Amino acid sequence: MNIGIGPERGKRIPDREAFGYVCNRCLYGSKEEIQIFEKAMKESRDIQGFAKNIVKRFFTGNWVYDNTDNNDTLWIIRFSNDELLSYYGSYIGAVLKGREEADKRGMGFVVN
């Protein structure tokens, strides 16, 4: 969980929402936020590296990190054909497992 301080005070962004939040801020944000996005994009080889890079870059300065949001828990991975797969671990781990299985099956997925 990323917790805002200073001008970001009052904002709490869970890990599972961090990438979407950052993309939204970079798309509609200040010139500085757009530059963070562009720099992270140039330095990344793939989408997973880009996601990690931009989240790490964005949540510095006016943010503190609370790792209690990363506790292992049970996640359900639902594939586009409505098959389910359970995963015990972090949200990031569940997404990576979902991506791996979705690629094998040739379909999309969501993690709940």
Summarize the structure.
It contains four helices and six strands; from the N terminus they run ββαααβββαβ. The protein is α+β, with helices and mostly antiparallel strands and 112 residues long. Strand 4 and strand 5 form a beta hairpin.
Task: Kindly describe this structure.
This protein is α+β, with helices and mostly antiparallel strands. 48% of the residues lie in helices and 21% in strands. It has a three-stranded antiparallel beta sheet. Helix 1 packs across helix 2 and helix 2 runs antiparallel to helix 3. It is globular, with a radius of gyration of 16 Å.
Layout of helices and strands, plus pairs?
Layout: E1 2-4, E2 12-13, H1 15-28, H2 31-43, H3 47-58, E3 63-65, E4 73-79, E5 84-89, H4 91-105, E6 109-111
Antiparallel strand pairs: 1-2, 1-3, 4-5, 4-6
Low-confidence stretches: none
Number of helices: 4
Order of helices and strands: EEHHHEEEHE
Gap between N and C termini, in Å? 17 Å
What shape does the CA trace take? globular
Give the strand tally.
6
The helicity comes to 40-55%
Strand proportion, as a percent range, falls in 15-25%
The helix-and-strand class reads alpha+beta
Biggest β-sheet: count, sense, barrel? Answer: 3 strands, antiparallel
Radius of gyration, whole Å: 16 Å
Question: Could you tell me the mean pLDDT?
Answer: 88
Record the strand order, biggest sheet.
Answer: 2-1-3
